[in-house]
Amino acid sequence: MKDKPIAQQSILIIDDIPANLNVLMDFLSKTGFKVLVATDGKSALKKADYAQPDLILLDVMMPGIDGFEVCKILKSQPQTQEIPIIFMTALTDTFDKIKGFNLGAVDYITKPIQHEETLARVKTHLKLRQLQAELQEQLQISKKYAIELEKRNSELNAFARTVSHDLKNPLNGIIGLSDLLLLPEMHLDEKEKREYLQKINDSGNKMIDIINALLLLAGVSQQDENLEIKPLDMSAIVSQVIEKRLDYMRSQFEASVDFQKSWPIAMGYAPWVEEIWANYISNAFKYGGPAPKVELGADLPKNGMIRFWVRDHGSGISKEAQKQLFTPFSRLLQHKQKIEGHGLGLAIVQQIAEKLHGEAGVESTEGEGSLFYFTLPAVPETYNN
């Protein structure tokens, strides 16, 4: 964060004596500061809240709301509590100075005001505030990185579990079955050989699916912001997923899919959005009950975002289970169907949605089915002109 030029820094002077105000305002204005003034506590509070000055010079002895009370109120309000306050006072009593510091003031200037001393203290406290703001910014960045690192470590641990378990199991199956086929004493007919080979093939395909999902998850996690974000032809994307990618699953589960022909236009990266639909729809086929009836749709844009959704009429998901759904490598364990999976799909959906400046989520009630959704930014007006 760069230092703000003096010409952009504002100082609010609060004093009920016009002569004091005019002299100090004239001096600080010539120095280059933007100067605001208030002659009483009530107007000072309103001006501080509205103008958000970089520093406040506050007279202690004022009629009505005195300087101590003004300071107390300013420090009690979130929008003004970080503004440094320097008291201006003829009081020399140590008790009064301590009272001011306890209320949150950063310094005292004794009247009659010495201009050069005032300027030096003002610049010092403005610099201190600038450094404090930079420190807070760095702390926020560090906190963000710490959260991201914790998330990545969690994903790495889960990745290791998947490699050691989900990939190891089908690999052991391939090795075990091929070892059996190579035994000299194994005398198998053609039908038995084909069954063994089919199991080996199934295990190999399962490993490929897991590896592809891992690569996609890693790619989404590491992808920078230089994506080809543009208006999406959602009708074409949905048709591609249902009619080409998931047609075999639709037949396998005897599922029906009802979706609208006209879609609101959102901004996104088409290959990733296709992955979201593929994950949501395939889960609806798996967990939508016998001969699942799946509905796809979108809501009208709200606050610049469009919500797209997939609804099934299955057994629903408990509140507790919903908390884990979008965690990498978690599975829908509560469902009675023995559907195999590696727990990556919804984690991929969430990361894609976030990368595209949206979000992903679920609404579900046990016994009443589930609605999985994701949001994307609506197309800007410039594309409509």
Explain how this protein is built.
This protein is an alpha/beta fold. The protein has 3 domains: 9-136, Rossmann fold (3-Layer(aba) Sandwich); 167-222, no CATH class; 230-383, 2-Layer Sandwich (Heat Shock Protein 90), CATH 3.30.565.10. It contains 12 helices and 12 strands. A 5-stranded parallel β-sheet has the order 2-1-3-4-5, sandwiched between helices. Strands 7-9-10-12-11 form a 5-stranded mixed β-sheet. α2 (41-51) packs parallel to α3 (67-76), α6 (168-182) runs antiparallel to α7 and α7 (190-222) packs parallel to α12. The chain is elongated, with a radius of gyration of 33 Å. The relative contact order is 0.07.
